[in-house]
Amino acid sequence: MSLFESALIKKYDHSGPRYTSYPTANNFAEFSITDYQAQVEISNQNKRTISLYCHIPFCDTVCYYCGCNKVVTKDKNKAEPYLQRLFQEIDLQAELFDQDRTVEQMHFGGGTPTFLSNEQIIRLSEKLQDAFSFADQGEYSIEIDPRGVDEDTIKALAKARFNRISLGVQDFDIDVQKAVNRVQSFEQTKAVIDLSRAHGFESISIDLIYGLPKQSVLSFKATLEKVAELRPDRISLFNYAHLPELFKPQRRINVDELPSADEKLAIFKFSMDFLLDQGYVYIGMDHFALPDDPLAIAQQQGELYRNFQGYSTHAQCDIVGLGLSSIGQVGDSFSQNEKDILRYYAALDEGKLPIIKGQVINEDDKIRRAVIMDLICHFQLDFASIEWGFGIQFKSYFADELSRLSDMHADGLLQLNEDSIQVLDKGKLLIRNICMVFDAYLATSKTQFSKTI
Q1: Phi/psi of residue 193, each to 5°?
Q2: What are the residues whose beta carbons fall under 8 Å from the beta carbon of 50, sequence distance 6 or more?
Q3: Which of 56, 258, 298, 381 has the highest Cβ tally under 10 A?
Q4: CATH code of the domain made up of 1-22+363-445
Q5: Under 8 Å CB-to-CB from 146, ≥6 apart: which residues?
Q6: pTM over 0.90
Q7: Longest CA span, the chain
């Protein structure tokens, strides 16, 4: 499979959304608690299953590349006041949802969720299990920092019902690690993965970043070889977006040490070829999985979905966002919590949900979301499925968009057929660009997005 063609990538390397939702979060506006409650009522009538997302914002050190909403502190005492507010929020949310709705998915993200003590992680998980009805066999994942994890932590995570872990690695090269203030040995990482497998964890994911300071093809090759030795079930290969005007920690990165555009592209090409040679399946965007992983299977069966946690096997779930800055997707709406921790605390201390913005999607949003999801998850789109689902004539409704796809068709990114769109191998790396054609909000957006490659 030939995915990589440098000339085309350079031609289409524009900035654009990652489409973890459509409409994207930058379009969220005023959204009241009453609006949210109305959407939960719709959701309760449909009896959709539930995915819980808990955001733990704390990190004890700052990684210079990071763009997450976080609180950097070494004071572990700050976790308990946050946990108490999180418990209050769980109670407020659980009151709204019918108890016969099942939780099939739970994810703790951050920040660094393992900033919490083992006892606090167990308490939080038990609180959620008391408040909601959990499936016996769900997908329960947590992001961890291997630098602060030992066997007791892994045992606590298993007791807290987690069966999947995601580890940030980024790069194993010590010079790169020092340049981004994240020194983490291969031995530490391997020990945690070995312990997780020994204690029955079903899936291991590793995050890598290309485009960091002091990286080269040769240095990243060594990192990939170590990752191959670990053989994680999933790998995320993220493009570092240097946006210091948006993310203050990035101002500490020496821009003179960043790889050139050509070198960065070469790192990406080498990484793609390496992972495919290792037997990983390219899921889409920057995600790879082993062929027997549920993500790869879901893609083969046409059941893959994409949400705020990335690619997912649980398309039918409503997402209940809990914690600072978390995003939910309930009924026909998206909602986002307060991003400032003191205001987050204040809302809950007043007995109110800390939701500050969101969006109720309209029919056009639903149509375009369905189109974008089919393309970004399955690399194909049958016009008839959209016509049947929404009662439209596809070629009439999207006449302008189909015209704009003609260049991509000529460049071999996709095959524009009479009744379908088929994304070709060359276009799979540029799937964000293809999806952008169907984004009705993009032309008027003032948001600064990352580059598509």
Answers
A1: -65, -45
A2: 97, 101, 102, 103, 104, 105, 132, 317, 318, 319, 320
A3: 56
A4: 1.10.10.920
A5: 167, 184, 188, 189, 191, 192
A6: yes
A7: 62
